[in-house]
From TrEMBL:
Positions contributing to NAD(+) binding: G11, A12, A13, G14, N15, I16, G17, N107, Q114, V131, G132, N133
Gene3D superfamilies: Lactate dehydrogenase/glycoside hydrolase, family 4, C-terminal (3.90.110.10), NAD(P)-binding Rossmann-like Domain (3.40.50.720)
GO molecular function: L-malate dehydrogenase (NAD+) activity
Enzyme class: oxidoreductase
Protein name per Swiss-Prot or TrEMBL: Malate dehydrogenase
Organism encoding this protein: Phenylobacterium hankyongense
Lactate/malate dehydrogenase C-terminal domain sequence ranges: 159-323
Statement: the UniProt record of this protein carries the keyword Oxidoreductase: yes
Domain Lactate/malate dehydrogenase N-terminal: 6-147
Transmembrane region(s): none
């Protein structure tokens, strides 16, 4: 039997939290042979703490063999204590008509305090994955406050965008999802993201060739992927939750499975033209559990470069907005 790992989840009684924790406890994120202890954080006020207790009761009632213990708390220093994985979900979602960047002022400060707590108490091998929006910039804030851990330990989630982009290509081409490969998301988790259809494949062939409609790819497909979150909010009246939790399961499972190639927002060292120090979506390959390398071999054409420049400008602008929150 493996030694249990400690997995901290913030906002555990929220919409994503409720769709997420059961899947972690069932072994979908870290494997069916990996026992774990869930350390669940909610804001320290009566309603959310009571709701958190209810979530814990249901977790208990699932009798998951892998779930060895649970910690329920309103204190980040307790939640992140010795945590091997810190999943930062808790923060405000946007409503209809808002952009994710509108959340920066409110949500950014959450990641100052949580970055500091992670720095103080998390395990030496801690990995951090940020979902709370705007996630690329929130992860930068957290990482800047947690200097004990190197920047590569901090990732943000663009996997929902990759999954959306693959599903949309499969639907357009009339093929099964598994036929769509090599679709990677570059840049910000915002409408400026670039879902790189220029290197995507359908059934092993260039997606652009199979789709046969470059205008559709440029003017309909890209905006549809970029604005899918807003479309879900419009339809559901609430931001995506089950698909976001599913994407986080994919994100962490692939980051812990050697050889997996997938999109993640990682600290930029200047590759693909992203400014150094921002967190930008790009393709990564997992080289050891929790460790990855950026895949650098994709040649971008002028169109792709112009899209990447746009999303990079937005990331640099967001960094400027939060400069007072960076440690
Ligand atoms: P929600 O409001 O349903 O739940 C958020 C929970 O976080 C609440 O229970 C709240 O009490 C808690 N919370 C707030 N501040 C906290 C703090 N400082 N510490 C601990 N808990 C705290 O929202 P949701 O639908 O679960 O969404 C959560 C976040 O995820 C939002 O910012 C949303 O925009 C974002 N999101 C990101 C993606 C992505 O692809 N990156 C996808 C979907 C949603
Ligand atoms: C999403 O992409 O569904 C989330 O980031 C929620 C949102 O605000 O769009």
């Amino acid at each position: 039997m493996k030694k249990p790992i400690r997995v901290a989840v913030t906002g555990a009684a929220g919409n994503i939290g409720y769709a997420l924790v059961f899947r972690i406890a069932s072994g979908e994120m870290f494997g069916k042979d990996q026992p774990l202890i869930l350390q669940l954080l909610e804001i320290p006020v009566e309603g959310p703490q009571k709701a958190l207790k209810g979530v814990a009761m249901e977790l208990e009632d699932c009798a998951f063999p892998l779930l060895q213990d649970m910690v329920l708390t309103g204190d980040a220093n307790v939640a992140f204590k010795d945590a091997n994985w810190c999943l930062l979900v808790g923060s405000k979602p946007r409503g209809p008509g808002m952009e994710r960047a509108d959340l920066l002022k409110d949500n950014g400060k959450i990641f100052i305090a949580q970055g500091q707590a992670i720095d103080a108490v998390a395990a030496d091998d801690a990995r951090v994955a940020v979902v709370g929006n705007p996630c690329n910039t929130n992860v930068m804030i957290a990482a800047s406050q947690a200097k004990r851990l190197t920047a590569d330990r901090f990732t943000a989630m663009v996997r929902l965008d990759e999954n959306r982009g693959r599903a949309l290509l499969a639907r357009k081409a009339g093929v099964a999802i598994d036929e769509v490969s090599d679709l990677f998301i570059y840049g910000n988790h915002s409408p400026t993201m670039f879902a790189d259809f220029t290197h995507a494949k359908i059934g092993g062939k260039a997606a652009a060739e199979v789709i046969g409609d470059e205008a559709w790819l440029k003017t309909e497909y890209l905006p549809a992927v970029g604005k899918r979150g807003a479309a879900v909010i419009e339809a559901r009246g609430q931001s995506s939750a089950a698909s976001a939790a599913n994407a986080l399961v994919d994100h962490v499972r692939d980051l812990t499975t050697v050889g997996q190639v997938h999109s993640a927002a990682v600290n930029s060292e200047g590759r693909y033209g992203f400014a150094e120090g921002v967190w930008a979506g790009m393709p990564v390959r997992t080289t050891a559990p929790g460790t990855y390398e950026v895949i650098t071999g994709f040649e971008m054409d002028a169109f792709a470069k112009s899209k990447i420049a746009l999303t990079n400008d937005e990331l640099v602008g967001e960094r400027e907005t939060v400069k007072d929150m960076l440690g």
